[in-house]
Write a structure and sequence with these properties.
With 399 residues, the protein is of the alpha/beta class. It has helices at residues 3-9, 35-50, 65-70, 85-93, 103-118, 148-154, 173-179, 195-211, 223-233, 310-321, 355-361, and strands spanning 10-15, 18-27, 55-62, 126-134, 141-144, 161-163, 183-191, 240-248, 255-257, 266-267, 272-276, 279-282, 287-290, 300-307, 334-336, 343-347, 364-370, 373-378. Helix content is 29%, strand content 26%. The strands form 3 sheets. It has an 11-stranded mixed beta sheet, sandwiched between helices. A 4-stranded antiparallel beta sheet has the order 15-16-18-17, covered by helices on one side. A 3-stranded antiparallel beta sheet has the order 9-11-12, with no helix packed on it. Bound molecules: zinc ion.
Length: 399
């Protein structure tokens, strides 16, 4: 990465004198979402100005530089859908001296360099915070892959927590980071153009620094204000939700969301949600509308959410700690790959409909559907973190 690029990519750093966690915060992975970048500038400035005592260090990283400059979501393709672990491992193992094929491949290469450079701390945990905004109005919220470690960390933010969206979205940065074993939180702050989205990102940043143990509560002057601000902005909608439906529009250029839907607004079966040309698209279930698309770029028309019962969450924690996944392989229609239970092949003609619910409960995520067989995989590092926090055993810096 050139020095000029590095300068723009790194929004700022703080800490590093006392041993502690590494916090990597990314803003503007989508170029039309500059709120995260602004919030990072503000918080890093405040830390410096007030000389706040700090354990570990924080680094603020700008995501899609070219798209941020133009104020568009992306240039050639969505930078938050190109984090396929196999492809990145290939890049890392050959040192990647090939030329990136498009604008976002070049951005990804730079970002990999940053991550691997700053996550070489072997003793202390690394946390990722990915700051975004949405094209619809509505409350801030968090998205996480459903591991027990992510759940425990996310509970500290007084906003709704959405589980399992990564099953529906391919190759996001958050999922890539998660599979490496780090705690990774996606924070959606509100509407792209709403000035309060910057303030919500600031609130999420202070909350993260205290939760991770980088700063003490008493030194986070703005923490209490931040927490109550998030609580109000989230309209007191706490708790866990899961995605029960995704309306993809990959092949539908005529998709048009009906106007006026807000994130988390209640919807009922039969409600008119969108149109594709003349065709009406109605809700097939009761729930809450989530991330309705009000911009031109993007493949997700809308999602539907349902609230998760806290008892169900407690049961799932208990069963996962017992490694109850192992018993699944004795059920009809379920086969463990290589005689283990990390990856399962489900014959959906034999296994019943509720199987996917039970798999979620036990920490599995849907991977692929191949010839009537569903392949699911247990999420890595669900309960325990990797022993070695360093990414540096993978490779040296890319060229
Ligand atoms: Zn985004």
């Amino acid at each position: 990465m050139s020095d000029v690029n590095q300068k723009k990519r790194i929004i700022g750093k703080y800490g590093g004198e006392i041993q502690g966690p590494t916090i990597v915060c990314i803003g503007g992975l989508h170029g039309n979402e500059p709120s995260g970048v602004r919030a990072l500038r503000y918080v890093l400035n405040q830390l410096e100005k007030e000389s706040v005592p700090f354990r570990g260090h924080i680094i603020g990283v700008a995501g899609n530089l070219k798209a941020l400059k133009k104020g568009v979501r992306f240039i050639d393709r969505d930078l938050n859908r190109i984090w396929q672990p196999v492809e990145i491992d290939k890049l890392l193992s050959n040192g990647n001296d090939s030329h990136p094929e498009d604008a976002e491949e070049a951005e990804r290469k730079d970002l990999i360099n940053v991550f691997y450079e700053y996550c070489s701390n072997k003793e202390s945990p690394v946390y990722f915070l990915d700051l975004h905004t949405t094209s619809s109005d509505g409350s801030p919220f968090i998205t996480i892959a459903d591991t027990l470690r992510n759940r425990a960390f996310a509970l500290n933010y007084p906003v709704p927590i959405i589980l399992g969206i990564e099953e529906r979205l391919d190759s996001t940065l958050l999922n890539y980071i998660n599979e490496l074993g780090y705690i990774a939180i996606g924070f959606e702050a509100g509407h792209h153009d709403d000035p309060s989205s910057v303030e919500n990102c600031v609130a999420a940043l202070w909350t993260t620094l205290v939760n991770a143990g980088c700063i003490d509560k008493k030194d986070a002057d703005e923490l209490e204000k931040s927490r109550s601000r998030l609580k109000t902005a989230a309209s007191n909608l706490g708790g866990f939700y899961e995605v029960s439906y995704r309306h993809g529009i990959e092949n539908d250029s005529d998709f048009r969301m009906e106007l006026g839907f807000k994130n988390f607004e209640r919807i009922h079966k039969g409600d008119l949600l969108a149109r594709s040309g003349e065709r009406e698209i109605k809700s097939t279930e009761n729930g809450r509308i989530f991330m309705p698309l009000y911009q031109k770029q993007g493949d997700d028309g809308f999602f539907v959410l349902r609230k998760i019962n806290p008892l169900w969450l407690r049961l799932s924690t208990y069963l996962r700690k017992l490694h109850a996944g192992a018993v699944l392989t004795v059920l009809p229609g379920i086969r463990g790959v290589d005689g283990k239970y990390e990856t399962l092949v489900i014959n959906d003609k034999i296994a019943r409909w509720y199987v996917i619910e039970i798999l979620h409960l036990l920490g599995y995520r849907r991977k692929t559907l191949e010839g009537g067989k569903l392949i699911v995989k247990k999420r890595a590092y669900d309960i325990k973190s990797p022993r070695d926090y360093s990414l540096s055993n993978k490779t040296l810096k890319l060229k």
